[in-house]
Amino acid sequence: MAAQAAAAAQAAAAQAAQAEAAESWYLALLGFAEHFRTSSPPKIRLCVHCLQAVFPFKPPQRIEARTHLQLGSVLYHHTKNSEQARSHLEKAWLISQQVSFSYVKFEAASLLSELYCQENSVDAAKPLLRKAIQISQQTPYWHCRLLFQLAQLHTLEKDLVSACDLLGVGAEYARVVGSEYTRALFLLSKGMLLLMERKLQEVHPLLTLCGQIVENWQGNPIQKESLRVFFLVLQVTHYLDAGQVKSVKPCLKQLQQCIQTISTLHDDEILPSNPADLFHWLPKEHMCVLVYLVTVMHSMQAGYLEKAQKYTDKALMQLEKLKMLDCSPILSSFQVILLEHIIMCRLVTGHKATALQEISQVCQLCQQSPRLFSNHAAQLHTLLGLYCVSVNCMDNAEAQFTTALRLTNHQELWAFIVTNLASVYIREGNRHQEVVGDMLHVCPGVFGLRRGRHPVRKRFLRETLKMSNAEDLNRLTACSLVLLGHIFYVLGNHRESNNMVVPAMQLASKIPDMSVQLWSSALLRDLNKACGNAMDAHEAAQMHQNFSQQLLQDHIEACSLPEHNLITWTDGPPPVQFQAQNGPNTSLASLL
């Protein structure tokens, strides 16, 4: 018995020594691999060699699965060898299911689905994620993460109904496992998609519930404030979508205060006790840029264009710093949206050349990302259409707006494009085209304003003034006032005309809106001439001359830029290079 016990002890000792030796060589190779991966610059080839050296030792399945995952991850993130990355990740997924290695299993599924999507194999990614979700219910962190990932995949495919369903499932699961924080993240994400779908009746109760959850949740201060930022961003966006620029101010102020609070908080190293809480919506720096962006959107709608430019400059400066260290796609999306807004500002303030150069920047950003171009192609052609109108290239404007219509299903953008296209047709004198008749259903006010039916025109404009005054929409107010002033002038009611044009001029100067200033100064000149006010007429004429000269110089500069050739691009991805123009070749008659 003693001999048997001694032999058993020796066998156990030998087995332990063998396991320890195996652990030693594995840890040594792993240590070398990590050293090479984190070197500056990273030595990825040597890292891969170290990990591949694990397999000849015929390690246990757990180590084999983990090593395949590590190799797949390194190859996916640091090389262009997607075929080998896919092979290793698929092996990690298969082997880890045999040994019930949850961490490796679910991370392999997550990375592999990302790689499938990158290779446009979405049909392979979906069943993989569904299978992983099905078997991860006992692992709260991974179950929630995989639900978020599949919802995001459906969102990218424009299948918002399926995405909302998954987010609803996630919210209920988070409630069951006691994670009110992650429940709020799921619900806020669902609210964002409902806003995109314009399902406003469902949005209201959902946002109310989210507000209650956010206020009642007690946890990590940064997580709580990030939830509040997410909630307030949705509220502000909801108000702005409805044109409620004045009503949104309290929410916007709360949002700005909230981001200031977050910037003073330090990241807490203590991990949450509930694994389902191991999520964060956005990094603080990204939230800061987002709040700048929302502020720019508000300033644009309110007609505070100098303020919009100030916050755009701050946001773009912050983005440039972040993009040096962070290649997150959302940063490029933020940059494109900011540029889209500032381009519209430039066109309004009479800086067409700068606007054109910024349109070119958007083209360059879209060249780097097919997905970004797909999401912003319609907006890009719309901006080019607006630029074409500003330099009186009406044929090109028509082509750009028509292209934009073909590329969008977004209701508000479609209506905006159609309205501008209708205006182009009217300016070209094509009132009898069938397409213009069809547009009457979308923008009847435009035609009423241009056909000389003064009672109809005044009714539309007074309704517009009522709405714009109620919500402090300054640019809309200025445009309505100058149009009403023009109508009263044509009708011979000079006193009423003056009462409209003077505040229009003041408001346009505050914005500043160059087109309204040009029109207002011309009306003031003609009004004062008609009333025999020679000095005031001379002053207004001088103002009009100054505005005309500014527009003319900017027009010449814009049309001389090589980027001006963009006005002919209507198909495919943005052109890479531009040839210089010989000079402007468009008429300024409509501008002056």
Automatic annotation (TrEMBL):
Pfam families: Cohesin_load. One of its GO terms (biological process) is mitotic sister chromatid cohesion. Gene3D superfamilies: Tetratricopeptide repeat domain. Keywords: Cell cycle, Cell division, Chromosome partition, Mitosis, Nucleus, Repeat, TPR repeat. One of its GO terms (cellular component) is nucleoplasm. SUPFAM superfamilies: TPR-like. It is found in: Nucleus, Nucleoplasm. Its main location: nucleus. Belongs to the SCC4/mau-2 family. Heterodimerizes with MAU2/SCC2 to form the cohesin loading complex. The NIPBL-MAU2 heterodimer interacts with the SMC1A-SMC3 heterodimer and with the cohesin complex composed of SMC1A, SMC3, RAD21 and STAG1. This is MAU2 chromatid cohesion factor homolog.
